[in-house]
């Protein structure tokens, strides 16, 4: 028999899940609108029921006997008993199919009692059952449905009786037709309620329900009708009828278990598929910002999972609580009724439940703490299961108040929720592992900031959306120095401190990455070039503040370069392109200008440098690179004592390239060995030809710091001297003091080995670096060259004059030859001569000359003295 109370219907009838809101629970505007519509629908159902009762009563007047007063209470008890033996099968959230046996007392009622008695018995039994189950939200609707069910049943039975024209007693066929009408009427009412509440049911689901209603109703009605006819004809046959009825109940119960198991498997499959889809979507998410562990949690996806659990358990509410990060509060997903207080307490006792098994908690049986938790949720009972992995709490799943007319949550619900919770715990654990792997892949392990791939991924979206963006690059220049002096541990601490400083300036929302070493990159979205420059200045000032490292105060210098998408709007730039341009801007910082913005000309400069580096070897082979020579003369004798070999490059596209431009690029590219070998061979060949002409002129070749790092360099030089048969004392190597002091422990053995070959060693640009006298005494050098900046300033700056005098005196006190370069006028030459300087070099004597011009210069300005070769000199004509 149908019973359209909240969420269930007898014999297959279905009704909407619309329980009255709990006291104190917040109600949404949509829920209030649904409630108003359902109240109107209830009034219509009740009015139609009363009208139907009046119509059928006038058509089928009461003809009972007062001596049969006991039939009414007996039928009411029969209806109550049939209701208690019902088997509830959930169809979907709030819609269930109840296999009850109310058709049996109804079909018997057609034979033993009039319409009014059967109606009263059914209504009293139904309302009593609802009140006993504390289902008070839909009593009026269900009462109206009871009236319509019974009146429609008797109306159809009466019509069939008239058509058959049978005897005064009710024909069995009419009773059967009337009994089948009741569940069909209940189904129509329930489907109308679904539409009123704007819930959706597929047509196929409705048709399957209707088919099951007819089948089950026919079986129940047939069993009741058969039993009545057998007992009325053969009173002693009631044991057989009872046995058949018990078998039928067992059959229904087994069938309901089979259906429940099938639906549980479908629900598990649905949840597994939803979790798999969410995992796939999580894997495709971009990198999280620095310091965030992105679990890829889309709460829309988890709401769908919670909704599926709610559907399967027919619960009033499901709460899914997830801990996304360690030591962080739970995030909540609530489907169904809203929580009375909006959110649950952080110290909720359900979060302290041990283990990972399902608890079935009832407010009537729980301890005070659990009763309080259930009361906070406005629930009478709950299924609660913690989600754990390796004893770590990942979350909690709660299901509140089963929407069933007969019972609360049962063992099947406990088993199902436990299995689903196991799936969810595994999915969360896998997602945390995936999030950890993704975090490690896109973040720097030292600082926790983004790394280059992570920065590239984070910055891709705003650049793709064509937002005006600026990429800044910040470089600290003391990382390698701290690493060499104190070790990488302290250098790493300085990098961490620098990252925190930069983060404090930029704020938590700006993507910040550590690229490598002590280099950082940041993305400013919706910033103009002027705004970016201001930010860059603040970054440079903050990052350049001294750092406390191992009880030492380390002075740091930061360079900041930035590149904006607004510089060349017609060109679409990606992250790598902006990073490259910001790097160019950093490398373009010179002479106190520590903040530079990228301009298109920088790209041309670096492209030119790249071309020069890649073409240099070929240029050596093609004769584009040559060696020029600048003479040196002794003071005061004015004898030509040597020349300095200077490299020159005549590029076919760029023309004459300045050595200050291409030599650093060649050195940075690791090609300085080839350059030094080329110049050395040219210089020694020139000396050999002078020797063949009877002249002893030494040649000076500049060395790079990279030459001093090559342990095989002395052997290469010795081989070259032997190949050209040049005495080693006619070869001078000039090296800057900064080059030697960059790594004195590594350079000193190389210098000693070269000096041991008899080669003359000179310290170039003396006075401009940071060498100490102690190291100068240790160096196996023969000459010091006074930097030309001091020589040029002697005539106007007494300080420069004092420096030059001090260097001359210092050099002589150490037994060194002193060479002054940059001599451009007679006054400077005379001053140097008066100080006792040994050798002069500069434009006053000669500019650097090619081999041909040098020969002409020597012929025009010098006279050759005759004699043995060892005594041959070149004297400068006055």
TrEMBL record:
Source organism superkingdom: Bacteria
Segments forming domain GGDEF: 467-600
InterPro entries referenced in this protein's UniProt entry, alphabetically: Cyclic-di-GMP_PDE-like, EAL_dom, EAL_sf, GAF, GAF-like_dom_sf, GGDEF_dom, Nucleotide_cyclase, Rev_trsase/Diguanyl_cyclase
Start-end of Low complexity biased regions: 1-25
UniProt xrefs under CDD domains: EAL, GGDEF
EAL domain location: 609-862
Keywords, ordered alphabetically: Membrane, Transmembrane, Transmembrane helix
Name of the molecule in the record: Bifunctional diguanylate cyclase/phosphodiesterase
Transmembrane segments annotated in the record for this chain: 40-60, 106-132, 139-160, 172-197, 209-231, 237-255
Ranges where the record places region Disordered: 1-29
